[in-house]
Amino acid sequence: MIKFSLLLAAFLIIAPSIVPRNKRMTIDKEKYAQIVKAEFLHAWDAYKKYAWGHDELKPVSKSGFDWYGSSFYMTPVDAFDTMLLMGLKDEAAETKELILNNLNFDQDVFVQNFEITIRFLGGLLSAFEFDGDKRFLTLAEDLGKRLLPAFNSKTGMPYVNVNLKTGETRNEVNNPAEIGTLMLEFGTLSRLTGNSIYYDKAKNAVQQVYKRRSKIGLVGTTINVNTGEWQDTESHISGMIDSYYEYLLKSWLLLGDNDFKVMYDSSIAAVNHFLPDTVDNRLWYGKVDMNTGQRTNTTFGALDAFLPAVLSLGRDLKRAEDLQESCFFMWKHFGIEPEEFNYKTMQVAYPQYVLRPENMESAYYLYHFTKNDKYLKMGEVYLKSIMDKCRLDEGYTSLQNVSTREKGDKMPSFFLAETLKYLYLLFSDENVLDFNSVIFNTEAHPLKIVFR
Ligand code: DMJ
Predict the structure, then answer these.
(1) Beta strands in 286-390 (DSSP E)
(2) Which of 29, 115, 141, 218 has its CA 20 to 30 A from that of 271?
(3) pTM score
């Protein structure tokens, strides 16, 4: 008996050091989930107090801001499904009433097809799927019909802007991200309405980009939607291309259409061949010319941090984990991540931090796939620096400069749709949301997988 007690005591002393250090549970997940929820309420209360009914909050001016002159209720639409996930029943009920009583797309304004699709079509479809009220779907279908004229170019790739009332279009030079980040929303709208037109238009747009890839399999930064000619041939995973790759993979996973898997597999192979750049043992994805593969730039930034999430979803965990280490290094090195910096010189190119979610999104995916506590610790660092540097009495604000901490005057709707949602999900039990039953659109609105 004494022998057994001694053995047990010895085991209890030694056991913690048998478990790899980075796998040990050191974060109180529930505590952090509650902190994130409280910070969401802090941000939402500020929106209610100073910007109620407007698109977004200007926390320093203590006022509201509307993207197109009059409001489309962007923050409420973007924040609604986060409230549902957080179990904020009262807030969700008042937000639902606000949206259903006021949101009206019959406005004579030129909107950006991509932004309106990912925030509103995505937000309304997710609201319908998780709340069940048919009026969300009616609004989504009305919006979908108004966006369709955007695809009336010679190739079928959408113009940048479309007028929601007249159907007129503007700006024929578009980019792969804005052309290729519509499929999850338009595909889901087709499934829910039984009208295939949305699916077909969005799929053709993606295929038009893909078939214009270069001989080495890369796409450029801008393309004319009428002539089909590339305007800017720089290739990368940054803004203007980023979510094109994200949606190739996610369209296959959400809609079960194998054509997207074929496009993703060959595209990501080219990306993984030509863009990676290792400096001081750290993996980065830089910029190259789409035709030659020659390096054109060694910059990386906040938006690029989406890629570890996509790579892990595509089951390429090794690259995903390596790149996430670099994204975390970027965050720590500057105290909070800049919009863009040069990973060779470590000079900041664009010094803003606009409350972006991508670094947290990737930590959430990687924690899901590995259950390694180091991703919880990353989340803790992200949360603490945002609370330290961006929190005001009146909500949260962007930074103009990550070094000087000079404040901006904007709380983007994606802070409530994405940044706080991904942090909350990272620290929450998986039963808050079954990861395997949904695909997040690029604005973090979960859409249900139903074909399996
Ligand atoms: C969001 O609107 C989306 O995540 C988009 O894909 C990129 N930009 C913002 C967040 O950074």
Answers:
(1) 287-289, 295-297, 299-300, 340-342, 348-350
(2) 115
(3) 0.94
